[in-house]
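Allow me, if you will, to draw on your knowledge of protein folds for a short while. I have a record of one protein: its chain in single-letter code and its fold written as discrete structure tokens. Could you please explain, in whatever detail you think fit, how the structure tokens follow from the sequence? The record follows directly beneath this note:
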Amino acid sequence: MTTWISHRGYAKSATENTGEAFDAAIDLGFEHLETDLRCSRDGHIVLCHDPDLARVAGSSLAIHQLTRKELSQQRLRGGEFLLFFDELLERYAHYRWILDIKPEQAQQTFNALEKLSADAAVARFLNQQARYLVWQNNHKQILTDVVADAFCLAREPECYRAGTAALLGLPGLGKIVKGQYYAVPPRLKGVPILNKNMVARFHQHGAHVIGYLPETAAQHEQALAAGVDELLTNHAPELLKAETRSASGF
């Protein structure tokens, strides 16, 4: 059975990466969520994808140049406030998470995680409830020095290499790692690539496939029909089913 993962929360009804977006996703049935970690000037982790607030708040202010107090005063486009990592822990620690650690101030984020992990409950969350995406190879080692059992998902170059090899029917050339999770989009440059044969080649090596950000109902169905293990999406299962039924005339 495919696990659905909400990408930055359900942003159709609220600004991404906010409590409102995560609440909306949970209301739709998601139990697995994804978010982005950045660090404020004074060492607090804030959930934001971009290095600045231009897209989510119409401001050119950079996350790393502002303190927590200054960030907490910023209103986002939908009227929401930014969510901080300690607030995520208070409200959503019983859910499963993918934590995308953005590279620009990653060391500051690692330092903040290390301080938080002095709390045994936080340490359990970081080791047991979360998986991680890091963007530089050396960051994986730094993270595991902080979070001993941290599971890092395959990075973009690894996904591209493994996916290309699996698509060509030569998975042995992809250096596919047993137990690892690889993100594969439904299409590459407009060409459908995600299918049962491709996923089966990953499974033959004991690896898992994440259907990566399908956009249309048809692309979601393509990923599900291919047998992906997980589906990372900006959309909602029930709305997509309704869309599919409508398109079919039911």
The chain has a mean pLDDT of 95. The radius of gyration is 19 Å.
